[in-house]
Structures are given as C-alpha cells and as structure tokens.
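Wait, mind explaining this?

_____
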Amino acid sequence: MPSVQSIERAFAILEIVSGDTSGVTEIASRCDLPKSTVARLLSTLETLGVVERVTNGSDYRLGPRLPQMLGPVDLTARLLEAVQPNLEWLALQLGEGTGFAIPSGSAIQVVSQVDGPHAVQVRSYSGELFPAHVGAPGVVLMAEWGEAELERYLAHPLAAYTEHTVIHPHQIRDRLALVRRDGVCWAHEEFAEGISTVAATVRGPGDRVLGALYAHGPTYRFPAADSVDWAADLVHRTAQQILKPATG
C-alpha cells in the first residue's frame, strides 16, 4: 500500500535526522531511496514542522512540532512517576486499593491503580475510559468544569451503571456544589455494585487540575463506620501534596 510505504519511509528519514543533521544525498543513500523521493518526503515533513532546515540550507534536523506533540506524553509520564509512590503509600495507610485518573474530554481515563493488602480486591480498571458522572474520580473533575461545559454535558441523557448512579442534572449540580465546598467526593455503588470510592483532585502549577486521586474497596468494609472522615481527609491531603515538584 503506497500510504503505508510512505509512512515507513518518513519514519526512516526521521530516525536519521534525529541522530544528526543530514542532507538529501546522505539520507537517500542510507535509506536506499531515490533522492527525488527523499526530497519530496522532506518537503512534506518540513511543511508539517516535523523537520526543519539548518542554517546552511541543505541539511535537515528534527523540527519543533515533535516536542510539542510529545509534550503531553512526557507530562503524563512525569505525573505517573510522581503519583505512583503516593498511590502505594495511600493503599498501605487505608488498606484498600488506590488509583489515579486523568480527564479525557468529557470522560476520565484510569491510568494507574494499586492493590491494597486484602485478598479480596477491586479489579483493575487501568487504561479504561468512563463517563465523568459515573463515580467519584469523574465527579471531582466535573466540579472543575465551567458552566458552559457542564450545561453541554447535562443536556444529553446520562448512562446509569447501577441503580445508585446519579444521573439527574439537578442532583449532579447539588453534588458538585458539595465537592467544591469539601474538596472530596464519596460514591457508594454508583460505578459498580458493592464498590465504594472516595476521590480528590490533583493540582499542578498555577492550580491547574491534572487528575483525580482515589481509593476504593468493597462497600462491606470500606469505609469503616468510624473512618469516613479520616479516609476522605487522607485522600484529600495526599492529592494536594503530590505534583507540583514533578511538573515544575
């Protein structure tokens, strides 16, 4: 397929110029391609900002577009590097599983999860996407939305994952007001039967919301009757202290 072949050739060129500046003749020789083909591909890559000419006008190097594209990936990797030890510590303190989710449009994506010490665990949801209104991590992130974004979201029918999922717009608005006041959200059997979750937002420089830290466990043991406030406060305080050093 010509389109696939062009992509393969473009990647071969990028591999060469990522190591050192190179001209059309050298690239053509190393890729075993006609110079006219290399020149055409370089012209396209230059237009896209993926490569750029160096000052002599004949050699090429990687352009500014790639770092811009890779920036979010690098940021997520640094976030996870900072979050992971906190997830492990929190799981030991609470004796339950913990996780971290990030915004993904009007949904959330679970990007890391740590098991607690018990034999009975909540299954891993790492990598999965869920509607924002379903469960505590999404609700704390919804609390950061502007009115226009919230209005658009609530204008559509909302899925109920269980009979306890909050789907009525006025109830969601009331709940978001409480989250903004308290900084945390509890959800009991809203995402899955028999699972309780508490979550708080994680912020970076400039008070930017980067994700949601959460803890979850079987409802029959989490939270214990005498530890509701303690567990919520621990999740909240842990979320507050995580990411500024990692994203500065």
Q: What stands out?
A: The chain is about 45% helix and 20% strand.
